[in-house]
Design brief:
With 133 residues, this protein is of the alpha/beta class. It has a single domain, classed as Rossmann fold (3-Layer(aba) Sandwich), CATH 3.40.50.2000. It is built from 7 helices and 6 strands; from the N terminus they run βαβαβαβαβαβαα. The protein has helices at residues 12-23, 37-41, 59-67, 85-90, 102-105, 117-120, 123-132, and strands spanning 2-6, 30-35, 50-53, 75-78, 95-98, 113-115. The protein has a 6-stranded parallel beta sheet with strand order 3-2-1-4-5-6, sandwiched between helices. The protein is globular and about 35 Å long.
């Protein structure tokens, strides 16, 4: 499983819910987190997560797009914007989008499971992971 996190676009409160569910998994997968130093520092990341400090418009998105590896395994995109709709649409396996923005994430609902941990809670995340493991 690949987990790509845009730390600039998701609040720590939402990330904490997501990361707590991810910690319940035997294998949380390959985790890549990109964003400004301040955004990276405001959250405790799982051991083994690759943190990439990038600042500037769309720089974190570029890092995450380059880290993406196509394949049948699940893909988890944690981002508050809809910049990854093409990547999600072309991914051959199941896709989960963890987002804090229902408006921009709406474009992703046709190609992915979209969950907002702040409003949906942890259960939809657990349900997704149970279905793909």
């Amino acid at each position: 499983m690949q987990v790509l996190v845009d730390a600039d676009n998701v609040e720590p409160s939402r990330l904490r819910v997501f990361l707590s569910v991810l910690a319940e998994l035997d294998d949380p997968g390959d985790i890549v987190v990109a964003g400004r130093a301040k955004a990276l520092a405001r959250t405790s990341w799982p051991a083994g997560a690759r943190l990439v400090e990038e600042a500037g418009w769309q720089r974190a998105d570029v890092v995450l797009a380059q880290a993406y590896l196509p394949g049948p395994d699940p893909l988890v995109l944690v981002s508050g914007d809809g910049d990854f709709v093409l990547l999600a649409a072309r991914h051959p396996g199941p896709v989960l989008v963890v987002s804090n923005s229902a408006g921009s994430a709406a474009r992703l609902r046709d190609v992915a499971t979209v969950v907002d941990p702040a409003t949906d809670g942890p259960e939809p995340l657990r349900h997704f992971f149970a279905g793909v493991r």
